[in-house]
Design goal:
α1 runs antiparallel to α2. The chain folds into 2 domains: about 140 residues, 3-Layer(aba) Sandwich (Aminopeptidase), CATH 3.40.630; about 35 residues. The N and C termini lie far apart (about 100 Å). With about 200 residues, it is of the alpha+beta class. β2 and β3 form a beta hairpin. Helix content is about 45%, strand content about 20%. The chain has a 5-stranded mixed β-sheet with strand order 1-2-3-4-5, with helices on both faces. The chain contains 7 helices and 5 strands, in the order βαααβββαβααα. It is elongated and about 75 Å long. InterPro entries: Acyl_CoA_acyltransferase (IPR016181), GNAT_dom (IPR000182), YpeA/RimI_acetyltransf (IPR050680). Keywords: Acyltransferase, Transferase. This is GCN5 family acetyltransferase.
């Protein structure tokens, strides 16, 4: 028996519900609770995003069953060098049909979209810890260009010493008190034992 045929269609209003169900499944696989995923999906943000001119989404079907999607956005490779690029924001394939050509079919749709937009490159941000996704993209010709790192603003400010002086003094005083408390028992054990006259 041959491989099932994969068809890919743009996510137009008639396919929004099927796309959203796949998106919910994707979020749940990523660790979001089903309730939170449904709440996020149904607040209208996804439908609004799908209507933007700089975003395109495609959904894949196998035997009339929705089995994956890709979301791509128009961008540039760099903020300083204007070179049209299409960026893969999300690529998802249902677990039981992976390695059946669904991801390739979705990326082929992205390549056709990029050509129509005059983009010379397609980029994808892949989580560093997702080895399977990294191997997939490497196999089909995506080369590592950068490592994107993310931090909360508050954490960065702390690391750079951006707190106000009073906050820093309070933190240093707290840390010194903790060091003093930890050191106190060891000072007692190192003290000379009392001398007994006799």
């Amino acid at each position: 028996m041959g491989r099932a045929v994969v068809t890919v269609h743009p996510v137009e209003p008639g396919l929004h519900a099927q796309f959203i169900e796949l998106w919910i499944t994707h979020r749940i696989e990523g660790g979001t609770t089903p309730e939170a995923a449904r709440r996020l999906a149904l607040d209208g943000t996804l439908r609004t995003a799908l209507q933007r001119n700089d975003i395109a989404a495609f959904i894949a079907f196998m035997d009339q069953r929705p089995v994956g999607y890709i979301v791509i956005a128009d961008s540039t490779r760099s903020l300083l060098v204007v070179s049209p690029c299409v960026s893969v924001d999300m690529l998802y394939v249902v677990a039981d049909v992976r390695r059946h050509g669904v991801g390739r079919a979705l990326l082929a749709a992205a390549a056709r979209y990029a050509e129509r937009r005059g983009a010379e490159h397609i980029a994808s941000t892949v989580p560093a810890q997702d080895r399977e996704a990294n191997r997939f993209f490497a196999r089909i010709g995506f080369a590592a260009e950068t490592v994107r790192r993310v931090t909360p603003v508050a954490a960065l400010k702390r690391r750079l010493g951006g707190e106000c002086p009073s906050q820093r003094r309070n933190l240093e005083a707290l840390l010194q008190r903790r060091r003093d408390v930890r050191a106190a028992p060891s000072r007692l054990t190192r003290a000379e034992p009392p001398q007994i006259a006799g």
